[in-house]
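Supplementary Text 2. Reproducibility record for the structural model of the 277-residue chain.

All settings were left at their defaults, and a single model was retained for analysis rather than an ensemble. We include the record here because the model underlies the residue-level annotations in Supplementary Table 4.
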Amino acid sequence: MTEQRIALVTGANQGIGYALVEELAQRMNPEDLVLLTGRNPERVAAAAARVEGKARVEGRVLDVTDGDAVRRLAAELGAVDIVVSNAVGPLEPGVAPVEQVDEFVDVANLGAQYMLRAFGPILRPGGRLIVVASSLGTLEQLPEHLWGRLDQVSLEDVEKVVEEWRTAVHDGTAQAQGWPEWINLPSKVAQVAAVRAVAAERRERDLAENTLVASVCPGLVDTRASRPWFEDFSQAKSPADAVVPIADLILADVDPGLYGELIRDGAVVAWKPSTSR
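Retained model, structure tokens:
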């Protein structure tokens, strides 16, 4: 009998997260378990009930901004094979950054950091630890004098920078320090930096065990979160189409050239501009 694999996706009651649960459920085996997680019990239950696939799907309530809750779920499961940190907070045009930064950062950054810390240690050999980010999560989105804050640093360093940036948004000094006004940019760069930090520590052992740690960019996707920010969706993917290359990456053997990187449609998105040193 094939050993059961356990997959977990956060922010999965709608959009990309839900589509990825569906895709994994269709492509994994009947003995496998896919955990669809989100904050709202009713939405989680309804979403899990809609999924059709070969693998068993179970809804779990998980607020990724609650570090204790994340750690409790990791302890309960004991071991996992696939973890996808996908949860993202609301962000609206026309609303001042200071009014949005806390909820957005709590979900996108602290949530990803909690998931990396709690689930990295219980990832089975051959597992996948993935953070859904964006092609905007590269150093060239920041002025060069800030690159060293997030390049080749530890996860603790990334966490410190995120909190210092958040504080600067609140006290009105963020732009003077060079941080972009659109809070999505520093947030995405910090997400990718967090993944790179974790991957740097694990790389040798993980590659020997066919284990992958990476961040992924799904591209422009027509979702509730993206619609307020873009006028032209003629080239946008549906969530179902966007998750196919992500599932391909998760279910394929590990390519060492992709390990620790930001990946879009199976290719690396450069962390630094090619002309940088």
